[in-house]
Amino acid sequence: MQKFVVVVECAIEFNGKILFIKRPNGVHAGGLLSFPGGKVESNDGGRNINILVNAVKREILEEVGLDLIDPVRFITSSYFIDSNNVHVLDTVFYCNIENSNIEIKPSAREVPEYFWLTADQALIHDNAADWLKHYISCIEREKKITAAL
Questions:
Q1: Which of 45, 70, 76, 149 could form a disulfide with 49 if both were Cys (CB 3.0 to 4.6 A apart)?
Q2: Do residues 102 and 19 make contact, with C-beta atoms less than 8 angstroms apart?
Q3: What domains does the chain contain, in order, with CATH numbers?
Q4: What is the pLDDT of residues 101-146, one digit of tens each?
Q5: 8-state DSSP, 109
Q6: CA distances, 135 to each of 8, 42, 72, 109 (Å)
Q7: Pairing mode of beta strands 33-34, 73-81
């Protein structure tokens, strides 16, 4: 039976722009744009705890210094094998900032650069991989569905 690593990431939107990080060199997808996030850890959950939401909030705090108090919504998940032959289950969330403090304090080790881009800007960015473009499309579709309700 193949085991896999569980990772979470979150598209954080503020005033029509989404927070993207540049992945550090030397890691899977190094140099490419991504949403902030990381691996789920055993201390992210417990009995009757939403481990994925806890993990994504912890990772956002660690990577970019944001303490998300706004709702975090599930968008999609995918499975892939990374460049190190690690099997990965990736879960993508979305958070529209209305109440959280928006001051970014990037981790020097994990976030060499960050950008606030519109979805359209990100879709044409040179360092946007196809998987990121797919996630952006999923988010935009979910936002339209939610707005229509």
A1: 45
A2: no
A3: 5-148 (3.90.79.10)
A4: 899 999 988 899 999 999 999 999 999 999 999 999 999 999 998 8
A5: T
A6: 13, 26, 15, 25
A7: unpaired
